[in-house]
Write a structure and sequence with these properties.
Number of domains: 1
Radius of gyration: 18 Å
CATH topology: Beta-carbonic Anhydrase, Chain A
Bound molecules: zinc ion
Number of strands: 5
Distance between the termini: 49 Å
Largest sheet: 5 strands, mixed
Length: about 170
């Protein structure tokens, strides 16, 4: 039987003083939102030099600019004052080279026709550029002048920018 949830509760109960953030504003101090893949190898805080309270972190499979990512980014900018977006994708992503059709077929076999797409892709850089283009044209976001895209390589730890213009 899975026991992570119980262990997590116990772990948190051991040091509430380290978890509490009395007086820390919910408004990101560095006015930035990070949209990243959920990959376990991406540790955004040391990678980007951010601390708790600095940034909104929005993670999903791929780090894609999905409708729900836009919902969160819109809330981040319009309600909580962020003005800058950093998108992090990475080498070795589980969606890279995946099959949208196979995934849909597997779901269909279970009687499910989702409204969303998996987001499988063949070209990492092009996919990131498409996300950047979507964000830069999203009127839900009042601040679209500072949207940048990075690719992380978990094998060598490098982080490099992908130009948003084709
Ligand atoms: Zn990934």
């Amino acid at each position: 039987m899975p026991k992570n949830a119980d262990e997590m509760l116990e772990h948190a109960a051991e040091h509430p003083e380290a978890l509490a953030a009395p007086g820390l504003s919910p408004r990101p101090q560095r006015k930035v939102a990070v949209l990243s893949c959920m990959d376990t190898r991406i540790d955004l805080f040391p990678m980007l030099g951010i601390e708790r309270g600095d940034a909104h972190i929005i993670r999903n499979a791929g780090g894609l600019a999905t409708d729900d990512a836009l919902r969160s980014l819109s809330a981040s900018q319009r309600l909580l004052g962020t003005e800058e977006i950093v998108v992090v994708m990475h080498r070795g992503c589980g969606l890279h080279g995946g099959s949208e059709d196979d995934f849909r077929r597997a779901l269909a076999n279970d009687g499910i026709l989702p409204t969303w797409r998996l987001g499988a892709f063949d070209n990492l850089e092009d996919t990131l550029r498409q996300s950047l283009a979507r964000l830069r044209s999203a009127r839900e976001l009042p601040h679209r002048d500072h949207i940048r895209g990075f690719v992380f390589d978990p094998e060598d730890g490098s982080l490099r920018e992908v130009d948003g213009t084709d």
